[in-house]
Amino acid sequence: MKVCETCQKEYPDDVKFCKTCGTPLMEKQEASFCPYCGAKLDADSRFCPSCGKAVEGEEAAGTGASPAATDVPAQDDAPSALAPVEEVPPVALDERFQLSSGGIVLHSGAPLPSKTGWCKWAYIAGLLLLLAGGFGLIVLLFTYAIEYNIIQFQKDKLRRMKFKFVSPVTTDDIYSRLQPVLMKKYGNAMQFDREDDTIVVRYDEVIYDINPNEDGTVSIWWRKSLAGAFLRFREGKLYRKIRTGTALIAYELQQQFGVHE
Questions:
Q1: Strand 2-3's sheet: what is its strand order?
Q2: Residue 216's CB: how many other CB atoms inside 10 A?
Q3: What is the pLDDT of residues 3-32, one digit of tens each?
Q4: Computed from CA positions of residues 219, 222, 223, 226, in that sequence, does the dihedral angle turn out positive or negative?
């Protein structure tokens, strides 16, 4: 049996080229599986991408059969081939804390949505009109003015945004749970400080104050660092940094205190 590497269609052994895309056909390789966890392996795999154990040579099951049917010598420290991969459970809500009734719950650390995405199309239209000798310059200036005011409004809105959190919580609680996680993931890119009863995070030329609110929610109050002050003429870039940093810190904070829903 032969197979096309481009479109993955199978052909009999006497066919040399794919009838769809014309790619030369290759001999179909039988699938192989990790004898320890059952994960599928690539043809040149020396280590399992799932459990990390060595599978080079006779240890890999390459007959195309189910990994459960492979005769693997018993090992004390190796899990069964049929054993499911253990998943790390999410942090549970500590019984000492009470979950707030309001606030936003983030399901990932992805940047918060931009409200100025449409502006790039207005800029493109303005450039085309400018090249055509029309009112392109007016369109560009008008778009810039609208974008600038939207960014100022949205930056202020991010400061007032409330995220679902827990209470009562202390500054020490926040620091002891959040600092190890962010330092492990981002290293020196994240810098922590403490100003009175506020935990301060410096990230990507922006400073973020973590402020628990009276209603049990938490706000991430951003402000420019000394380096970030040079971004005052690059509002679009600063807006992107704030959307990224605010979401990242709020998400990790919720995860460490068991706020998932």
A1: 10-11, 2-3, 26-27
A2: 20
A3: 777 777 777 878 777 777 777 777 766 667
A4: positive
d(Cα 143, Cα 118) in Å, to the nearest integer? 10
Q: What is the CA radius of gyration of the chain?
A: 27
Residue matched to tokens 């922006």: 206
Provide the 10 A C-beta neighbour count for residue 50: 14
- Per residue in 189-241, pLDDT (tens digit) is 888 888 888 899 999 889 999 999 999 999 999 998 766 555 555 788 889 99
Tokens of 98: 């009470």
**To the nearest 5 percent, what fractions of the chain are helix, strand and coil?**
35, 20, 45
Beta strand segments in 87-137, E: 98-99
CA 181 – CA 185 distance, rounded (Å): 6
Could you give the count of Cα atoms lying within 13 Å of 167 in the half-sphere of its Cβ?
A: 14
Tokens standing for residue 154: 């949205």
| C-beta separation of 198 from 210 below 8 A | yes
Mean pLDDT of the chain: 78
Distance, in Å, from the CA atom of 79 to the CA atom of 76, rounded to the nearest integer, reads 8
Q: Tokens 């960014």, residue? A: 151
What are the angstrom distances between the C-alpha of 136 and each of 122, 126, 130? 10, 4, 4
- Amino acid in the structure at residue 260: H
Interatomic CA distance for residues 235 and 147, integer angstroms: 9
How many whole angstroms separate alpha carbon 179 and alpha carbon 233?
32
Q: Residue ranges of the domains in the chain?
A: 98-256
8 A C-beta contact, residue 5 and residue 26: yes
Could you tell me the pTM of the whole model? 0.60
